[in-house]
Each structure stands twice: as C-alpha cells, then as structure tokens.
C-alpha cells in the first residue's frame, strides 16, 4: 500500500494503553528502538542476550501502564494495518511523565517514581539484564539527571512541565503522522493543565520530529562512559507554551534526588 492510499492521520485513534497492549508495545519497541543511537549504546550486548531485553522491556511497559505508576501515562496510536485496513493495529506509542500531577498534590517532598529502575531491581539488578552495558548505563543516567535538572527542573519547577519519556513509531508506519499525533496529544494536555512547557531529551531521529512541531533545541550533550571509545549525543529540546506559562514556585526544591529516576534513554 502506498503512502497516499493509506488512511490519513485524522483516522488515527489515540487512546490510553491497557495491559492487553503490552505485547504490541514491546513488539513496536523491538522493531523501532534499535534505530536509536542511545539504544545501541546502552544495550551493547543485546545480540547475545535478546531474551533479557524482552523480559526487561515487557516488565517496564507493564509498570508504565500500571495504575500504581501514576507518574506515567502511556498513549497508543491505533490505525488500520497496512496488510489489511479492516484490522486495527498498534502502530505507535508515547510514554509521558505526568508526575506534575502528584507533585501538585503532594508538594515538593513527593518522590518521583522510577518504573525502569524498579523493573531492573525486580529482575535482579543490572547483572540480570545482561543486554545492558552497566558502565554506559550509569554514564547515561548521570548525564541525563544533570541535563534535565539544568534545562527543565531549574527552569520550570518540578511540576511546571510535561516530559515525553518515550516515543516509538513502528518502522513500517513512520512518516505518516503518528508520532506527531501522539506528541500533539501531550501538547494539548500541557495547555489544558496550564503547564509552562513540554520537554524531551531526544536522539537524532526524534529531533527532526520535535523541530517539525516547533520545539526549541537547547543543547546537545555528548555522552561517553569512562574508558569508552564510543559516544552518542542527547538533544535537550523544549516547547514553551508562552500563553500558559506559570513561574515555578519559589520554595520548591526539586533537587537532583530524581537523578536516576527519569530515564528517558534508559531503554
Ligand atoms: C522519531 C519518530 C517517533 C517519528 O515518528 P513518525 O510517526 O515517523 O513521525 P511523523 O510522521 O509524525 O513525522 C512528522 C515530521 O517529522 C519529521 N520527521 C520525522 N521523522 C523523520 C525522519 N526520519 N527524517 C526526516 N524528517 C523526519 C518530518 O518533518 C515529518 O513530516 P513529513 O513526513 O511530512 O516530512 C520515529 O522515527 C521513531 O520511532 N524513531 C525511533 C525512535 C525515536 O527516535 N524516538 C524518539 C525518541 S525521543
């Protein structure tokens, strides 16, 4: 089926994910994530231990969707399958960090949830996830914690912005507007909630989509673990919602206690 004959983005259904979607989400992840530099960097041993990746990602997606992890909203884009347009298929999904809700409710003492860290702990720690290079993972976490604090928390406060944690479009369904539809869902939520900004830490592919949607590029940070020869680059990007901007509350102290919590690239 050609690009033009496929249904338009107007026909996409954006809905919250349920546990019944986990297998489909992991399938999209498995097909799409290896296109990202950060995935290849962190999951250096995935060829040797593919089953560890699937076990870990299945649990991570499960936790993201679980009502117990109310810091996260997972939205799914469902559209007609290319093979048979009468059959709906999960073609893309987004994971949003909506911890601003809990922070608004519980105040600055609220400790953000760490679905990815918890999943790893439940599986027996990083040594049980043999697909991961632990040194690279640690370097990524550290860089991400610092960058997010500097660009997002210090600027918008802990509860002033909505963060995109994951966005994946199935490889066969790219460039059809699904990624944009999912990000637009978040932008609309942020506007409704009077948040100051939508933020993301992106790789090379995502950067093009976010720029297309009007996000501003703040900084690129090269990550290299100690003793490593390989690197990859994170891009800090933000969409400021000028009309909805609220100054961060002065007495809030969102210190870097969350370092290791918001693991955009901990995939
Ligand atoms: C990034 C990603 C989510 C984009 O999803 P998508 O559904 O293909 O995005 P859209 O169709 O909505 O793209 C909208 C616009 O973004 C830009 N864009 C998106 N992907 C692009 C690419 N690979 N090359 C150039 N421009 C691109 C284009 O301007 C595009 O509009 P156009 O197709 O009319 O030219 C998808 O490529 C993906 O899943 N990549 C791997 C995972 C990843 O990098 N996720 C982002 C992590 S933060």
From TrEMBL:
Cross-referenced CDD domains: NAT_SF
Q: Which InterPro entries match?
A: Acyl_CoA_acyltransferase (IPR016181), Trichothecene_AcTrans (IPR052523)
Superkingdom per UniProt: Eukaryota
The name of this protein is N-acetyltransferase domain-containing protein
What is the organism of origin for this protein?
Cladonia borealis
């Amino acid at each position: 089926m050609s690009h033009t004959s496929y249904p338009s983005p107007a026909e996409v259904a954006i809905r919250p994910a349920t546990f019944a979607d986990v297998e489909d989400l992991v399938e999209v992840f498995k097909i799409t994530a290896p296109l990202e530099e950060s995935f290849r960097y962190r999951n250096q041993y995935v060829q040797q231990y593919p089953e560890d990746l699937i076990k870990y990602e299945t649990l991570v997606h499960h936790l993201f969707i679980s009502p117990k992890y109310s810091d996260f909203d997972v939205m799914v884009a469902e559209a007609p399958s290319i093979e048979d347009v009468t059959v709906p298929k999960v073609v893309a999904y987004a994971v949003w960090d909506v911890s601003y809700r809990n922070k608004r409710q519980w105040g600055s003492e609220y400790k953000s949830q760490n679905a990815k860290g918890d999943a790893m702990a439940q599986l027996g720690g990083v040594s049980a996830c043999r697909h991961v290079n632990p040194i690279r993972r640690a370097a990524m976490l550290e860089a991400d914690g610092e960058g997010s604090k500097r660009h997002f928390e210090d600027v918008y406060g802990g509860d002033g912005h909505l963060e995109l944690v994951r966005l994946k479009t199935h490889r066969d369904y790219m460039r059809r507007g699904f990624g944009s539809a999912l990000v637009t869902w978040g932008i609309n939520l942020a506007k409704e909630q009077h948040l100051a900004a939508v933020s993301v830490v992106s790789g090379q592919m995502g950067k093009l989509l976010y720029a297309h949607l009007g996000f501003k590029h703040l900084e690129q940070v090269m990550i290299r673990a100690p003793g490593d020869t390989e690197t990859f680059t994170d891009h800090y990007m933000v969409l400021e919602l000028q009309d909805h901007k609220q100054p961060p509350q002065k007495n809030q102290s969102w210190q870097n206690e969350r370092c290791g919590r918001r693991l955009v690239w901990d995939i």
